[in-house]
Design goal:
Number of helices: 9
Number of domains: 2
Order of helices and strands: EHEHEHEHHEEEHHEEEEHHEEEE
Number of strands: 15
Largest sheet: 15 strands, mixed
Distance between the termini: 10 Å
Oligomer: single chain
Strand content: 25-35%
CATH architecture of the largest domain: Sandwich
């Protein structure tokens, strides 16, 4: 991006706890590099979960139109929500990028945003802007309907169960070690729930191992549950895995990474505009977004086309 396009400078939201504390350890060196390059910016640290949403809204209200998040997929999700929730300017007037220092760094994989700081800075300076779609999910928590925007992937059923377990452990599933531990621990604990999925005129009612809804392709540290996701096609990528046995899950786990999950028996992939997931027998199906446990059914997904402006490599 040309320097003259960034009049007020970059508003940088830093999550010091991201990447299991990696950001906090690296931030001083990053600042030294930014200053040595006369990078025009104002940085502010998050203090707790959800704080980045508030800080993003405050930065935009102060006149900033160029925002950087420093952290992982959870930080990315919060800043994106801040951009979409503020009412000062249309969200598409905000230029956004992520300096990825998380554990999974999944959102950047679709856009090929570099993790090396020098290459990343070159991308900020010389990259191009493009637009991607944003998902909106409505769900219930403690009997109250809530909403959340997402730029990457939402997961339900087994995925939601893992995220709920991670929250009880005091972490989130962007922590790779915790995630892999919970994947196997929860696999033997989880009992499939019956649900009804309605999408674009179709209705599927069954017991589900997982339900994934994606704007981008990667989640869980490089897994591809929605390999058919295209971030700017105006559609939600939907993957449904029905009543897979635990043995089938283990034997087919390599397909979770290969982009061929759709070839597994009892798995189907779709591209849709709207999705509704409801419990069939009274037991709710759980929901996570970008590794964070949110709530449960009934859940509805919709899409906001080309509503986030981001910097990607030229």
């Amino acid at each position: 991006m040309k320097d003259e396009e960034v009049e007020k400078g970059w508003y940088i939201i830093v999550n010091p706890t991201a990447g299991n504390g990696k950001v906090q350890k690296r931030w001083k060196k990053i600042e030294q590099l930014l200053k040595s390059l006369d990078f025009n910016y104002h940085a502010i640290m998050t203090k707790k979960k959800g704080h980045a949403i508030k800080l993003t809204k405050e930065g935009i209200s102060q006149g900033y139109r160029h925002i950087i998040a420093v952290g992982g997929d959870g930080t990315n999700n919060e800043v994106v929500n801040g951009i979409l929730l503020q009412d000062v300017v249309p969200p598409t007037e905000i230029t956004y990028t992520l300096l990825p220092i998380g554990t999974g760094n999944d959102w950047i994989k679709t856009h090929k945003i570099p993790t090396d700081i020098k290459k990343w800075l070159s991308n900020v300076k010389n990259g191009k802007t493009t637009f991607q779609d944003i998902g909106l999910v409505k769900y219930y928590k403690d009997g109250i309907q809530q909403e959340r925007y997402f730029a990457n992937v939402a997961g339900m059923a087994y995925d939601g169960y893992i995220a709920s377990a991670a929250e009880k452990e005091g972490g989130n599933i962007s922590n790779k070690i915790l995630y892999l531990y919970l994947v196997f621990k929860c696999l033997f604990e989880y009992n499939l729930k019956k649900a009804k999925i309605t999408f674009d005129g179709q209705v599927v009612e069954d017991y589900f191992y997982t339900i994934n809804v994606g704007i981008c392709r990667y989640s869980g540290g490089g897994m591809q549950f929605v390999p058919h996701a295209i971030p700017n096609d105006g559609k939600l990528a939907l993957t449904i895995a029905r009543d897979l046995s635990k043995t089938q899950v283990i034997l087919n786990s390599h397909h979770f990474y290969s982009g061929k999950i759709g070839t597994v028996n009892k798995v189907s992939t779709h591209q849709v505009k709207h999705i509704k997931v409801e419990a069939s027998n009274g037991e709710p199906t759980l929901l996570e977004v970008d590794g964070e446990f949110l709530g449960e059914t009934p859940v509805e997904y919709s899409i906001l086309e080309n509503s986030l402006k981001i910097i990607v490599p030229s």
